[in-house]
Amino acid sequence: ETGVTQSPTHLIKTRGQQVTLRCSSQSGHNTVSWYQQALGQGPQFIFQYYREEENGRGNFPPRFSGLQFPNYSSELNVNALELDDSALYLCASSRENGETQYFGPGTRLLVL
Amino acid sequence: KNQVEQSPQSLIILEGKNCTLQCNYTVSPFSNLRWYKQDTGRGPVSLTIMTFSENTKSNGRYTATLDADTKQSSLHITASQLSDSASYICVVARSYNTDKLIFGTGTRLQVFP
Known about the structure:
The complex is a heterodimer.
Chain A: E1 5-7, E2 10-13, E3 19-24, E4 31-37, E5 44-50, E6 53-57, E7 64-68, E8 74-78, E9 87-94, E10 102-103, E11 107-111
Parallel strand pairs in A: 2-11
Antiparallel strand pairs in A: 1-3, 3-8, 4-5, 4-9, 5-6, 7-8, 9-10, 9-11
Chain B: E1 4-7, E2 10-14, E3 19-25, E4 32-38, E5 45-51, E6 56-59, E7 62-67, E8 72-77, E9 86-93, E10 101-103, E11 107-112
Parallel strand pairs in B: 2-11
Antiparallel strand pairs in B: 1-3, 3-8, 4-5, 4-9, 6-7, 7-8, 9-10, 9-11
């Protein structure tokens, strides 16, 4: 166990709906990164939060947004869900930006 | 184009045997290379991190090598165990910042008794 938790573990939504995924970082970590992992693929970087500020973003549209709270937990919000958004969403925390990342178990999202 | 390619795509070995997974990358600039183990339905777990100046690093039965000149890395697993069954992902960092990570698609390893 890495100490990084995510909720919910599984989620089913329909096209056009909105979803919020949550991540609690490991104690003492101030950096959280979010990844999307499609079946059979490697994780794709969505964005990173460092001390409550967005600190880098991958090639994802604006309907993917996030937030980091003062306790360094984080949320990933996806609006106007599309079928291709079905994937495992991973969050990873690190003690400081650039250090070893510890991944949570992921949230598996299915969009119907 | 910045890419990380892994081979083989999948591998089946018998318990107790050794195996080697390969990673070739065309990422520039280069900061470090990481190997992760990902069990089915779980998040990846870091095995090793190597910078430009390191050419080998071990973590128990896992030994990673890096040739920064040829842009190749390998992960060698010694005396495989059933619990080694997982996907092994090679990740190259273009800079010290996390948002510059390039992930490979992984090698799916299955260890049979």
